[in-house]
Amino acid sequence: MIQHKIRKAVIPAAGFGTRFLPATKATPKEMLPLVDKPLIQYGVEEAVAAGCTDIIIVTGRGKTTMEDHFDRSPELEAALIARGKTELLKIAYSVTRLARISYVRQPEALGLGHAVLMARELVGNEPFAVILPDDIVNVEGGCLAQMVGAFDETQSTILGTEVVEGDAISLYGCLDCTPHPTNDRLVAVSNLVEKPKPQEAPSQNAIIGRYILTPRIFEMIEQLTPGSGGELQLTDAIKALLQHERVYGFHYAGQRYDAGDKLGFLKATVDLALQHDTVGLAFRAWLKTQTF
Ligand code: G1P
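Above: inputs. Below: predicted complex with 1-O-phosphono-alpha-D-glucopyranose.
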């Protein structure tokens, strides 16, 4: 059997970000900063840490600042050189060297499945990763790298998963699954339901925004009809994939934040600020002086 490597990661970033209005009226949600880096950069860095060399960002109208962010900025670089700000120059320049980044537009917001389908030509016929940039996973080495390890073992579709409490399952894709005989982080998936009613959820295993998918998923997406919320759901395409291939859930190690939600965004900000190289210690000291 050919051992496939995960070289490409798709990052869907075409949504409106309505939960952050008015901040997201003229700024893409993916450009909101957690401490000093925009959300999307965390996703790109996680993909690179997992061995990806090619990143495909699915964008839409009003999202061009993302492209500028990862591009060279001759005026800024010239100004930093003139002022002798070499450390800042390194920071600005390194962002442009992270990976080969391509952009493809999703002309209409028809759902996550549709967003992934937009990347089909750029992905080609090889397994690839999908990172939803709202989901920030704070762990040394990154969540996707752990999943690539599981892919190397199974050569199958791998879905990042987490056990969530109570009714929260209805916010996620949900897995019906059984434990893997030898790897206690893996579960074998037998069914998937997108955003089930709590009483109808087959388990509390939620899909988080990390996927490794085989290229057959594109055929499955093409045959989709609208699902939950009237959208073309990636979860439904993975369910269809089960007719042809094995699918596994992967219980990753790390702390996840839903940075697409205000409270989750604030928690991620505090956690990352506390660990930050230059402001971490001062921020911790300040937090300790606060009475709540
Ligand atoms: C999407 C997926 C869902 C998944 C979630 C993870 O939903 O459709 O299956 O559980 O991401 O964040 P969204 O949050 O975009 O509604």
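The first strand starts at residue 8 and ends at 12.
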